[in-house]
Design brief:
The protein is α/β, with parallel strands linked by helices and 387 residues long. The chain has four domains: 40 residues, no CATH class; 160 residues, P-loop containing nucleotide triphosphate hydrolases (Rossmann fold, 3-Layer(aba) Sandwich), CATH 3.40.50; 57 residues; 93 residues, Beta-grasp domain (Ubiquitin-like (UB roll), Roll). Helix content is 28%, strand content 24%. β7, α6 and β8 form a beta-alpha-beta unit. α1 packs antiparallel against α2. The radius of gyration is 26 Å and the shape is globular. It binds guanosine-5'-triphosphate (GTP), potassium ion and magnesium ion. Magnesium ion (MG) binds next to α3. One of its GO terms (molecular function) is GTPase activity. It holds the Pfam family TGS. Keywords: GTP-binding, Nucleotide-binding.
């Protein structure tokens, strides 16, 4: 009998078995068995892609959020609650076997939420399909580490370890190091701060270990040795992360309070609909999205369909958000910045590199492709009435 048939058999037996005190233990055993078989379905087969590549789900919308957690913490329940996509949720582990995308629509943004199979300890080492799951997390703009509030605190550390092992650095910014390889000239080493957690000798030893004999190193932050190696390797991903404790309906108020006070943490209950709106608001904030309204000359701004971009986005990104043919033909732009020039709101020429701000209104005038102009307004209120 194949694994699929065995799973079916157990599921049928579970459906037949009445739930009561006497059958509780037996049902527990069945659940464990079911989870074991379903985990087997997740084992990489010879047909699946090379280890270490993620699930092949097209990125869509303005940002991607990945759900990472142990089995049965409620990832699929969250997806079904916050998007129009239904992902099967059940009381046994490894219910979800692949990546399932849904879309959260919030404040004009379309945020792709990716439900993923549960991972187990050792996932980064290739246990089950875990490596594929953690690799998919690498493609996210924000990671939600989902935890079961009724389970031990150990979960949090274990998940962090698995993500760290595939090169994901959570809630960290890339260390401020300038590193340039050269072909000759030896090693030049400079720092702008006092190093207290590593030293020049260690760094030179590491460089020698990587056979880097000619390079410039400029360190502008009190980094650790590990952080230096991260920059040297260069493939690290620095991704913001939100810890989400689910099932707070099943814990004491004291514990809920304690969990919720940790940094970057939100406590929720999918089942009881507790705090879900707040969670989505936090996702929006942590993604650092900005919302840009477009406006045609002579028309009112189009408030129904803003362009959402990440904080730090430029006029060029706005162009690309409208059509890819725009940026290459760009000559100059005009910006009306209500905030930065409060007392003399003059329109100023800006380049493609100009950074837009949340709630900017961007107006593009097309006098043929070569005379296009962009006007951005800092707030809707600062729009002149004669436009
Ligand atoms: N008490 C309680 N149970 C919940 C809550 N959210 C989900 N559950 C239950 O937890 C179980 C697992 O939920 P799933 O959504 O399948 O969990 P998952 O993380 O997707 O699980 P896998 O796909 O197997 O990794 C189901 O029985 C849900 O009904 C909650 O807020 N409170
Ligand atoms: K489950
Ligand atoms: Mg699931």
């Amino acid at each position: 009998m194949g694994v699929v048939e065995k799973i079916k058999e157990i599921e049928e037996e579970m459906a037949r078995t009445q739930k009561n005190k006497a059958t509780e233990y037996h049902l527990g055993l069945l659940k464990a068995k079911l989870a074991r078989y379903r985990a087997q379905l997740l084992e990489p087969t010879t047909k699946s892609g090379p280890a270490g590549t993620g699930f092949d789900v097209q990125k869509s919308g303005d940002a991607r959020v990945a759900l990472i957690g142990f089995p049965s913490v409620g990832k699929s329940t969250l997806l079904s609650k916050t998007t129009h996509t239904a992902s099967e949720a059940a009381a046994y582990e490894f219910t979800t076997l692949t990546a399932i995308p849904g879309v959260i629509e919030y404040k004009g943004a379309r945020i792709q939420l990716l439900d993923l199979p549960g991972i187990v300890e050792g996932a980064s080492q290739g246990r089950g399909r875990g490596r594929q799951v953690v690799s998919t997390a690498k493609t996210a703009d924000l990671i939600l580490i989902m935890l079961d509030a009724t389970k031990s605190e150990e979960q949090r550390r274990l998940l962090e370890f698995e993500l760290d092992a595939v090169g994901i650095r959570l809630n960290k910014t890339k260390p401020d190091i300038v590193f340039k390889k050269r072909t000759t000239g030896g090693i030049t080493f400079n720092t702008t701060v006092k190093l207290t957690r590593t030293d020049e000798k260690t760094i030179r030893t590491i460089l020698a270990g990587y056979k880097l004999h000619n390079c410039d190193v400029m360190i502008r932050e009190d980094i650790t040795t590990d952080e230096f190696i991260d920059v040297l390797i260069g493939t690290r991903k620095y991704i913001p992360c939100l810890y989400v404790y689910n099932k707070i309906d099943s814990i004491s108020l004291e514990l809920m309070d304690k969990l919720g006070r940790q940094p970057n943490t939100v406590v929720i209950s999918c089942e009881m609909d507790l705090n879900l709106t707040y969670l989505i608001d936090r996702i929006w904030d942590d993604l650092r999205l900005v919302k840009i309204y477009t406006k045609k000359r002579g028309d009112h701004p189009d408030l129904s369909d803003p362009i959402c971009l990440r904080k730090g986005a430029t006029i060029e990104d706005v162009c690309n958000g409208i059509h890819r043919s725009l940026a290459p033909n760009f000559r100059y732009g005009l910006v009306w910045c209500g905030k930065s020039s409060k007392f003399s709101p003059h329109a100023q020429k800006v380049s493609l590199a100009h950074q837009v701000q949340d709630e900017d209104v961007v107006s593009s005038a097309f006098h043929g492709f070569h005379k296009m102009r962009f006007l951005t307004y800092n707030t809707l209120k600062s729009l002149p009435s004669d436009w």
